[in-house]
Amino acid sequence: MAAIHVRTDSTVTKPVFDDEHVALTPPMTPPRSEVALPAATRKSENVPENYVEHTLKSTKALPPITWNNFYREINWLSLAILTITPAVAIYGFCTTTLSLKTAIWSVVYYYITGLGITAGYHRLWAHRSYNASKPLEWFLALAGAGAVEGSIRWWSRGHRAHHRYTDTDLDPYSAHKGLLWSHVGWMVLLPRRKPGVADISDLSKNPIVAWQHRNYVVLLLAMGFVVPTLVAGLGWGDWKGGYFFAGAARLCFVHHSTFCVNSLAHWLGETPFDDKHTPRDHFVTALVTIGEGYHNFHHEFPSDYRNAIKWFQYDPTKWFIKACQLVGLATQLKTFPDNEIKKGQLTMELKKMREIQEKIVWPASSNDLPVISWESFQEQAKHRPLIVVAGFIHDVASFLDEHPGGRHLLGKNIGKDATVPFFGGVYDHSNAAHNLLAMMRVGVLRGGLELESEKAVPPSQKLKVIRAQEMYMTPESSGVEEDDH
């Protein structure tokens, strides 16, 4: 998106330097020929301008999935987990009575395992948005395993690729491939190509992450089904309810809750910080994802430990991390500078205003109107109702009978300069009156508008959204010929 600014006039002033007072300074770096470039710099010169395009051209994707080969392209393990789990939960609902204690425990365990993903896998390990103490890391690693969404190492590698290559073919769950694909399709069907490169060297050095990765199969069974069943069974004797509701049904809800971050959060809502990619902010998505629904903010500022920045926005993951900080379990909570966040918001607001501005019909500028002498103006005013205000000649024929002050007030100024009466001599006109009058321009009075004065600019144009390149356009670049007079 081109840069957008607001300006208050139509001129650009260039700085003037006094040569006698300019301090001479040596070059900031030695000439290129005098210094050997470090190896890292020489290596970076070989990086293609567009890494994604280069990778897509230089690597071969698997053949497209068709009706003839789709059964060979299914990830049967993922399909089994995503179909058997809800089937078990449905069977449980049909055969087992849900007790109040088990229902409460199911909801509590839903949040525990969900936070293992949102506060652990996502904000701690994938984005390093805060530091966790060892007890908190162990808790989140175990809780995340109970969500049965892969190990920390595997999950974070894919998510870092998602952020680095958002909406491209190197994004493992690109929203451009459809809502169903970004929700579950990317897990059920084998990918056509590997996700883009992502550095997870920091996770490989983490002993808790490595331990969880090595023992993941055992942990997913223990935390996904055994623990919720044991708590309900040993606690109040509801072994079946613990298995069906706190185990299977809870797991189904956790799955689709976090899957919505990849699908719903890229489809529903607004883009208040950046519209370059698909992530969006929406309260509904936040409700179903334990606070991950302010996704436009998250993609713009991924290192921030928050998703929601306003106090009233629903983000229990943020509240959990903050609570951990208060009791000493979390430190160095990262927040993006508020000034930079406001820049993103302002940019989007300016873009919206620019879109509105481009749909509005504006008055003709002095460059697009004929230049008329005073004598010619007075002569033409004998045949049509012309008045001069702030150097512009206006034809008020369409407004004579609509003028709130009466036809006679406009009539007595025909053929005259009515600048003083219009600007308070007779009546201090409203902004709407100034804007409407500007739409009646038919010419420029020679000698009356060598440079457009403040009075000549309608209120609606005193603040105008312009693109950066428009600030420095010359008459030649704009296609407007300068007047020789």
From TrEMBL:
Cellular component annotations (GO), alphabetically ordered: endoplasmic reticulum membrane
Role, per record: Stearoyl-CoA desaturase that utilizes O(2) and electrons from reduced cytochrome b5 to introduce the first double bond into saturated fatty acyl-CoA substrates.
Entry EC number(s): 1.14.19.1
InterPro entries the UniProt entry points to: Acyl-CoA_deSatase_haem/ster-bd (IPR009160), Acyl-CoA_DS (IPR015876), Cyt_B5-like_heme/steroid-bd (IPR001199), Cyt_B5-like_heme/steroid_sf (IPR036400), Cyt_B5_heme-BS (IPR018506), FA_desaturase_dom (IPR005804), FADS-1_CS (IPR001522)
Localization annotation: Membrane
TM spans (from-to): 76-100, 107-126, 216-236
Co-factor binding details: Expected to bind 2 Fe(2+) ions per subunit.
Keywords: Electron transport, Fatty acid biosynthesis, Fatty acid metabolism, Heme, Iron, Lipid biosynthesis, Lipid metabolism, Membrane, Metal-binding, Oxidoreductase, Transmembrane, Transmembrane helix, Transport
Membrane topology: Multi-pass membrane protein
Top-level taxon in the UniProt lineage: Eukaryota
Any GO BP: unsaturated fatty acid biosynthetic process
Major enzyme class: oxidoreductase
Reactions this protein catalyses: octadecanoyl-CoA + 2 Fe(II)-[cytochrome b5] + O2 + 2 H(+) = (9Z)-octadecenoyl-CoA + 2 Fe(III)-[cytochrome b5] + 2 H2O
SMART domains registered for this protein in UniProt: Cyt-b5 (SM01117)
Cofactor(s) demanded: Fe(2+)
Domain Cytochrome b5 heme-binding as annotated: residue spans: 387-446
Keyword Lipid biosynthesis: yes
Name of the protein described by the UniProt record: Acyl-CoA desaturase
